[in-house]
Design a protein that fits this description.
By secondary structure, this protein is an alpha/beta fold. It has 2 domains: 307 residues, Rossmann fold, CATH 3.40.50; 101 residues, ANL, C-terminal domain (GMP Synthetase, Chain A, domain 3, 2-Layer Sandwich), CATH 3.30.300. Helices cover 28% and strands 24% of the residues. The protein has 15 helices and 25 strands. The strands form 5 sheets. An 8-stranded mixed beta sheet has the order 2-1-11-10-12-13-14-15, sandwiched between helices. The termini are far apart. The structure holds adenosine monophosphate. Adenosine monophosphate (AMP) binds next to strand 14, strand 19 and strand 20.
C-alpha cells in the first residue's frame, strides 16, 4: 500500500520560497571589492534572483544549461546560487586557484554557456577567455561604474545585466532529481571530475547539515563561511543558514586575511565560522601577535584536512571556543561526519575525550559508512581495524559528470581515505589511498609531479609524498632516484618544475635515494616512503 502524502519536490526553488516567507528580513553582510560592508536581506537577494533569471532567459538560457561562476563568497554569488538553480539552470562553481589548463578543461568539459567572474579575477579572464569557446557571454560581478577597461569581448557588468529586468519571475516547478549545481574536483590522474548535485541531494544535505550534532544552525546565529563557495558549496552553508533564518557573513576576497576576518567576526557578531585548518592557523597566530580576542564566536567547524591537536587545544583553552572537527568531500555535497560529543563521551577522562574530539566524528542519518580490506571484505567497527572508507547515501555521487561508468564499487563510493570506526561510530582517518596531497585545502596531484620529475634527463624514478606541514597541513616532498652517471642537485631539480606546474604545486624539498621501495605489484610503496621520510618533516 502506498502512502497518501503529497508529492512535494525538494528543490532549491522551494527553499527560496521558504526563506522568503519566513526569514526574508534576515541580513546578509558581504565584503566586496566595491564595498567593505555591503548589507542586504534574503528578501532583497531573492528579488534580484528574479531579475537575474529574467536576464538569463533573455540571453537564451534553457533547462540544464551550465552557468559558471569564478567568484568569492558574497551576495552576488549567492544570487547566482539561487537564481540559476531555481530557474532550471545548473550553477557551475569554479575554483579560480586551479591552473589555466585545468580551468580550460573544466569550462570546456562542462560546456558552460555563461561565465560570471569577480573583478579581481579579470586578469585571469583576460588570459583565458579565448580558450572558452562555449561561453557566449562574460559578466563581471560589479556595478556599471566599477567596470574596468577590458579586452574581453562584450564583457558586461552584473548590475547592468539585471538592471532593466522585472523583479518577479514565474519560477518553474522543477523535478527534484534535476541537476542544480556542478563542481569539479581533482582526480588522482588526468583531468578534474565533475560532481553533479541534484535539487534533492542539495536539500537533503541542507536539512541534515543544520542539525544540532552537525553544524547546528539556528535563526539567532551569525554564520561565517570562510570555506569558499567555489569549493564543495561552502559546505552547504549558503543553503543551511538561510533555511534556519541565520544571518550570513560573507568575507569576499578577504577569506585569507586574518586581520580582516577577526574584524569581521567581532564587528558582525559572528557565532559560528567554518574553514580549513590553514585559515584557522593564520588566525590563531594573528590573535596571539595582536592580543585580540574573538568576542562572539562560540564554535568553529574545522575540516577539509585533519585538524591539528594544538589548534583544538588553543581555541578551547585560550579562547573558550569549541572546535568541531568535520570530514567530507565534494562527492558528498560535502558533509560526511562531524565530531559532536555523545552521552558516552562525558564519561571519558580529559585526555581520552580530546583524543575522541580529534577524530573526524560521526556520520549523520543520510551517510552510511563501512570499512573494507583490500579484498572488499567488511572490517569490524572496533576502533582498531583500519580499512578503505566507503560511503553511500542520498547526497553521495554515484557517477561523475559525463563519465561512462559508475563511480561505485558494489553500490558504495570509495572515498580514497583510510580509516577506523569505533563502536560508538567515531571515525578516524589514518591515511589516504588516493595519490593526492592537500595543501591549504587545495589538491596537488603527486602523479603529475612525478611525471614532471621523471621527464628530467637525470631522473630514473621519482615519487612524491605528502609531508605534514604546520601551516599548509601537507606539502609535497619529492624523492628522486638518479640514472647512473647522472647528477643534478636539489635546487636545479626544483627549478625544472617552474612553468610546468602551478607555483604552489612545486615540491618544497627533494630527497635523493638509491632506489625506491616497491609493492608486490611493482608500484612504488608510498607507505614505506612515508615511514622512511617521516623524520624529514
Ligand atoms: P574535497 O573534495 O576537496 O573536499 O576533499 C575531500 C578529501 O579531503 C577527503 O576525502 C579527505 O581526504 C580530505 N579531508 C577532508 N576533511 C578531512 C579531515 N577532517 N581530516 C582529514 N582529511 C580530510
Amino acid at each position: 500500500m502506498k502512502g497518501l502524502m503529497m508529492d512535494y519536490s525538494l528543490t532549491v526553488t522551494s527553499l527560496m520560497r521558504h526563506v522568503e516567507a519566513q526569514h526574508g528580513g534576515s541580513e546578509v553582510y558581504s565584503l566586496t571589492v566595491e564595498n567593505p560592508a555591503h548589507r542586504t536581506t534574503y528578501a532583497e537577494i531573492f528579488r534580484r534572483c528574479a531579475k537575474l533569471a529574467n536576464a538569463l532567459r533573455r540571453l537564451g538560457l534553457t533547462e540544464g544549461d551550465r552557468v559558471a561562476t569564478m567568484a568569492w563568497n558574497d551576495y552576488r554569488h549567492m544570487e547566482l546560487y539561487y537564481g540559476i538553480s531555481s530557474m532550471g539552470g545548473v550553477l557551475h562553481t569554479i575554483n579560480p586557484r586551479l591552473f589555466p589548463e585545468q580551468l580550460q578543461y573544466i569550462v570546456n568539459h562542462a560546456e558552460d554557456r555563461f561565465l560570471f567572474s569577480d573583478p579581481l579575477l579579470l586578469p585571469l579572464l583576460e588570459k583565458l577567455h579565448g580558450a572558452f569557446p562555449t561561453v557566449e557571454a562574460h559578466v563581471l560581478l560589479c556595478s556599471r561604474e566599477a567596470m574596468p577597461d577590458s579586452s574581453v569581448p562584450g564583457l558586461i557588468s552584473y548590475e547592468e545585466l539585471i538592471e532593466g529586468e522585472s523583479d518577479s519571475y514565474d519560477w518553474p516547478d522543477l523535478d527534484e532529481n534535476l541537476a542544480s549545481s556542478l563542481c569539479y574536483t581533482s582526480g588522482t590522474t588526468g583531468n578534474p571530475k565533475g560532481v553533479l548535485f541534484s535539487h534533492r541531494s542539495t536539500i537533503l544535505h541542507t536539512y541534515a547539515s543544520g542539525l544540532a550534532d552537525l553544524i547546528s544552525i539556528n535563526s539567532t546565529d551569525s554564520v561565517l563561511p570562510v570555506v569558499p563557495m567555489f569549493h564543495a558549496n561552502a559546505w552547504g552553508v549558503v543553503y543551511s543558514a538561510p533555511m534556519a533564518g541565520a544571518r550570513l557573513v560573507l568575507p569576499g576576497p578577504k577569506a585569507g586575511d586574518p586581520e580582516a576576518l577577526v574584524a569581521m567576526m567581532n564587528g558582525e557578531r559572528v557565532s559560528k565560522a567554518l574553514g580549513v585548518p590553514t585559515v584557522w592557523l593564520g588566525l590563531l597566530q594573528y590573535l596571539e601577535a595582536s592580543g585580540k580576542k574573538l568576542e562572539t564566536v562560540t564554535s568553529l567547524v574545522v575540516g577539509g584536512a585533519a585538524c591539528p591537536r594544538s589548534m583544538m587545544v588553543d581555541f578551547a583553552e585560550r579562547h573558550g571556543i569549541h572546535v568541531y572537527h568535520a570530514w567530507g568531500m565534494t562527492e558528498m555535497s560535502p558533509l560526511g561526519s562531524v565530531n559532536a560529543p555523545k552521552v558516552t563521551t562525558a564519561g571519558l577522562d580529559p585526555a581520552a575525550r580530546l583524543e575522541q574530539q580529534l577524530s573526524q566524528g560521526r556520520a549523520p542519518y543520510g551517510v552510511e559508512m563501512r570499512l573494507v580490506d583490500d579484498d572488499g571484505d567488511e572490517l569490524p567497527r572496533d576502533g582498531k581495524a583500519v580499512g578503505r572508507l566507503q560511503v553511500r547515501g542520498p547526497w553521495v555521487a554515484n557517477r561523475y559528470y559525463r563519465a561512462e561508468e559508475s563511480a561505485l564499487e558494489d553500490g558504495w563510493f570509495d572515498t580514497g581515505d583510510v580509516a577506523s570506526i569505533d563502536s560508538e561510530g567515531f571515525m578516524r582517518i589514518t591515511d589516504r589511498t588516493k595519490d593526492l596531497i592537500k595543501s591549504g585545502g587545495e589538491w596537488i596531484s603527486s602523479i603529475e609531479l612525478e611525471d614532471v620529475a621523471m621527464a628530467h634527463p637525470a631522473v630514473a624514478e621519482a615519487a612524491v609524498i605528502a609531508m605534514p606541514h604546520e601551516r599548509w597541513s601537507e606539502r609535497p616532498l619529492l624523492i628522486a632516484c638518479l640514472k647512473e652517471g647522472e647528477s643534478v642537485d636539489a635546487d636545479a631539480l626544483l627549478a625544472w618544475f617552474e612553468g610546468k606546474v602551478a607555483k604552489w604545486w612545486i615540491p618544497d624539498a627533494v630527497q635523493f635515494a638509491d632506489e625506491l621501495p616497491h609493492t608486490a605489484t611493482g608500484k612504488v610503496s608510498k607507505l614505506k616512503l612515508r615511514e622512511r621520510f617521516a623524520a624529514a618533516a
